[in-house]
Amino acid sequence: MGGAVVYIGYGTTISSKRQINVGSCVMSLVHNKTTTDSTEQYPKMHALLGFLFPILLALAAFVLSLLASLAGVKAGFLPDSNIALLDTSRMGLDAVLVGNNAPSIVRRSLGMGSGKTNNENNKLINGTNDEVAKAIKDAVGLDQFYAVHAWTICSGTFVNKNDPSGGLDVRVCWPLYQINLTDLLEMDLKLSGPVRGAIREVGAAAPRIPRVIGDLFTTAYLLCIFSVLPSVIAAHFTLPRGPGGGYHRPPFWTHVLNLAAAGLAFVMLVAASAVATAGANRIARAVRDEAVWLGMRVEAGARFQGMAWTATALMGVASLYHVLAGFLTSRNRSSKSRV
């Protein structure tokens, strides 16, 4: 390309030996500015967001699944985040209040007509329901609720005696490996006959389920924190190599590794959340079928399930992000190969 003569001032020229290719200089400056802007500003932000987004999702899922697993590990720690809550605050109350009109099987099971429960009923025949409920509790030593957690079973009283949804005042928690729900309820109730059979049906459904849920959630939150490691590896390939270097798109295999880790954590969280939901429903069904006539009620842990399924959704979004990022990287490589 021929050189262009540049006039400087009036009547002064640059000789042909010192001619400047003005077009090339301008294009070079424009190209350098564009390259600098594109490698330091937009891709930098893209790289940072791409690095932080899946990590933040994985950390949030880790915290939620960890809290769901450790709820109730000691008295007073997240007492409302239980797998299932057995409400025994009115257990036997209806049978005592109706007196001789109660079914004979219920009256015999509760000791009506003889024993200390009958004595309490005679004392409070004109009393209020709360007084009768307190008398029964004192007579048989029964707590108002039994909360089933992943690693423990806790018992205590409701903060608001007339409203079970008003909060839980936990008295004591037992590790699942030391005691199961059947033995616990039989020990507290100290009753025999059909009551024992009904309690055993409930207890048979309860003790094994939380242990499985606890193991699943433990595995899930460990996988959540492990899924951060591939993102750190990908960041190593993304960051600039030197002071003047630009940000790079991470290799395709890092997206595959990220997807494998996040996907495994997601699958484990799905399994844990599904088992927790189904387990709570099974315990509730056992109570409805076998012990509802005793006045025992059960509630599935809505807060626990909310934490579990939220953690599952977060890891699902993280997995979907890695799928999309891998697809874009693959398409970008294909476009460059065609050029």
UniProtKB/TrEMBL annotation:
Keyword NADP in annotation: no
Transmembrane intervals: 51-73, 216-239, 259-280, 306-328
Presence of keyword Glycosyltransferase: no
Source organism: Pyricularia grisea (Crabgrass-specific blast fungus)
Keywords of the record: Membrane, Transmembrane, Transmembrane helix
Name of the featured protein: SUR7 protein
Top-level taxon in the UniProt lineage: Eukaryota
Any single Pfam family the record assigns to this protein: SUR7
